[in-house]
Each structure stands twice: as C-alpha cells, then as structure tokens.
Amino acid sequence: MIPGALGQGGSNYTGKWSDRGYAAPCASPDSWPYWQRVNVGSVTYTDQNGGVWSADKSFRVGSWGYRKGGARSSTIPVEGTEDDRLYQTFRDNMDSYGFSAPAGLYEVTLRFAEFTARTATERMMRISLEGTVVEEGLSIWGETGGRNIALDRTYQVEMSDGVLDILFAKQ
Which residues contact 137 (CB under 8 A, 6 or more apart)? Predict the structure, then answer.
C-alpha cells in the first residue's frame, strides 16, 4: 500500500525469492501525495478491509511496475492473514519495482510468504530501497519458522529522483 509519499509494497511485489503480498511506496501521513497498492503477479483485488490492489504490470516511466520476472501463484492457505490471495501471487526471479512519484519520504511495506524453500538458508535475498540495503540475507522461512506463513516488512526511505526503486537480489 502506498499512501502518499509512503508506501506499502511488496512482494506481493516486489523480488522473487520469496516475496509475496504487495509492494508500493506511499507518502507521509500528513500529505499523502502518492499511494499505490500492487497485487504482485496477479489481477486487481479488493482486500478484507475494502482496499483495492492494482493488477501487476511492467514498469514504464511516469507510472509504476515490475522489471523482469515471471508471475507465479499458489493455492496453499497462508497463516497469519485473512487476505491469502495477496500472498499467494508473486514474481519469480524479479529484479525490481519502480514507482514514479514526487520526491519525498516514503514508507514501503512488503508482504511475503515462502512456498518452496525447505530450509531457512535455501532462499535468501537482499532488498534495497533507493540504493540503500534494508535487508541483507532475508530468509522468509527463517523469519517465520516455515512455509505458508505471512511476513510483512515496513521501511522508510527518502526519494529525490522521481522514481522510487525497490531492488531484490538472490543471496
């Protein structure tokens, strides 16, 4: 979800080494110049609270979207959420997401669930926002203790170049 210059992103969006959920940047709570929810790897979705998540799309300057990676999904129920569908769709081997937005302070929330790893060290990733590493060696399994369990991460980042970049790298 991305309210204003702050955003909730994610996996559902944003990287594919276990990112599910959604990813999006949004603005500070007092100004909210930009807000974007992304149903990564899938179609438009309305969550349990009535929030509308946009269908995933590839990045274009002046807009938002993913860079690389194929859409995938699972039908396995996800513990820790009432919105399983936000966690069950994702992008494999995703490089990044970009969001064209006004310069400012953003809050980005990424939602994850692990469906394929069999150990805590099998799938790990680095996440960077605007060139700053915010997660090094993140293992969804390691953080949750297993598969099919929701994990949300929220970060704040300053963006000044007109495109908020969220990068994912396998480790």
Answer: 124, 125, 126, 171
Mean pLDDT by 10 residues, the chain (171 residues): 33 32 42 80 94 95 94 96 95 92 93 94 96 97 96 95 96 91
- Looking at this protein, which amino acid is placed at residue 35? W
Q: Which of 75, 12, 14 is nearest to 44 (CA)?
A: 12
Q: What's the longest Cα–Cα distance across the chain?
A: 43
- Measured distance CA(10)–CA(105) in Å, rounded: 17
Question: What's the full length of the chain, in residues?
Answer: 171
User: Residue for token digits 């859409």?
Assistant: 71
Rg (CA), the chain: 14
